[in-house]
Amino acid sequence: MRSTNDVTERSFQLQRGGQWFKSKSHDTFAPIGPWLVTPDELPDHDHVDLWLDVNGERQQAGDTSRMVFKVPYLISYISRFLRLEPGDIILTGTLGGVGLSFDPPRFLAPGDRVTLGGTGLGEQNCLCIQG
């Protein structure tokens, strides 16, 4: 298990009718880490507190117990049409509180600092820069 920041370039996505692939596939998107935690190091992976702050303000918080699909199900389902190999990464979705859901929407800007992590997963810090 590890933390991954599933970054989306919303203006690119919205300008193109909801195109997800191009809005998520830039070279610096989806930073992973800071480290990999093995199952023996995280005995209760069904109850991990997760959080994300933007400029020190809590924007997202949740617990893996609230996942719509549990990890064993995801592995089983994905294995029906893809061969999973050691080292493959499955992103399980985001917590509530994405910037697009605010009124008005909140988008990251150059200089913003995003900090995310989870119980036993460490903390990841990212500085947003102009691309």
Description of the molecule:
With 131 residues, the chain is α+β, with helices and mostly antiparallel strands. It has a single domain, classed as Fumarylacetoacetase-like, C-terminal domain (Fumarylacetoacetate hydrolase, domain 2, Alpha-Beta Complex), CATH 3.90.850.10. The chain is 15% helix and 19% strand. It has three helices and four strands; from the N terminus they run ααββαββ. The chain has a four-stranded antiparallel beta sheet with strand order 2-1-3-4, with no helix packed on it. A hairpin with a 2-residue loop joins strand 1 and strand 2. The model has no long low-confidence stretch (mean pLDDT 84).
Features of the shown structure:
single chain; 131 residues; Fumarylacetoacetate hydrolase, domain 2; four-stranded antiparallel beta sheet; 3 helices; 4 strands; 15% helix
Level-2 CATH architecture: Alpha-Beta Complex
How much β-strand is present in the residues? 15-25%
Mean pLDDT: 84
| Number of distinct beta strands | 4
Largest sheet: 4 strands, antiparallel
- What is the CATH H-level superfamily? Fumarylacetoacetase-like, C-terminal domain
Count of all domains: 1
Spatial strand order of the main sheet: 2-1-3-4
Cα-based radius of gyration, to the nearest Å: 16 Å
Q: Number of DSSP helices?
A: 3
What gross morphology would you assign? globular
Question: How do the strands and helices of this protein lay out in sequence?
Answer:
Elements: H1 10-15, H2 20-24, E1 49-54, E2 57-63, H3 71-78, E3 113-118, E4 122-127
Antiparallel strand pairs: 1-2, 1-3, 3-4
